[in-house]
Amino acid sequence: MNLEWIEVTGGVCAFGDDARPVPVPTLLWTRTPIAYGHLPNEHPGVGPRFPVAEISHAEAADIASQLGGRLPRSAEWEWMAAGPDRRRWPWGNTPWQPAFANLRDSGHGTVTPVDTHPDGATPEGVLDVAGNVWEWTASTAMSDGVVIRGGSYAAPPMYAQCTFLNAAPAELRSRGIGLRVVREP
Hints:
With 185 residues, the protein is α+β, with helices and mostly antiparallel strands. The protein has helices at 57-66, 74-82, and strands spanning 5-8, 11-15, 20-24, 27-30, 134-141, 145-149, 165-169, 177-178, 182-183. It is globular. A hairpin with a 3-residue loop joins strand 5 and strand 6. It is 10% helix and 22% strand.
């Protein structure tokens, strides 16, 4: 499975609920969260299109580096998800429906292949920004925590909104947390 990169033009992100202006560079984003098929080693029993999960923040950062990039900062993630017009959801302002993202009420009850919800893509074509697995970022939170974004298959739709952020302990390995990689163009 080849890694696909999508360019998201930079700008000034109106970050968070207080819309604090944060400059964001133009970046290349992996089209989907990293899936087992993107990794060089085989992972028996795991489908190649399923998101890499159950990894700590340090392991996620290492995988990103091995793939030629890094984890995005929280403001970069929000810019990619919401765009310059501050979409409420990665696909736009239409309320969540099961066809858009794998969230708690979608009926899946677990992770799905990374390209299962094409109707939920951003205008640039980035997939699974909302739901399926939370995504580790490079941004820290208090008490050795790290910001995670996007919601997971177990999250209510509210958690998948573009400005919603959460945090997890850096050492946590959860089936519901994966990663996406960014790099300079």
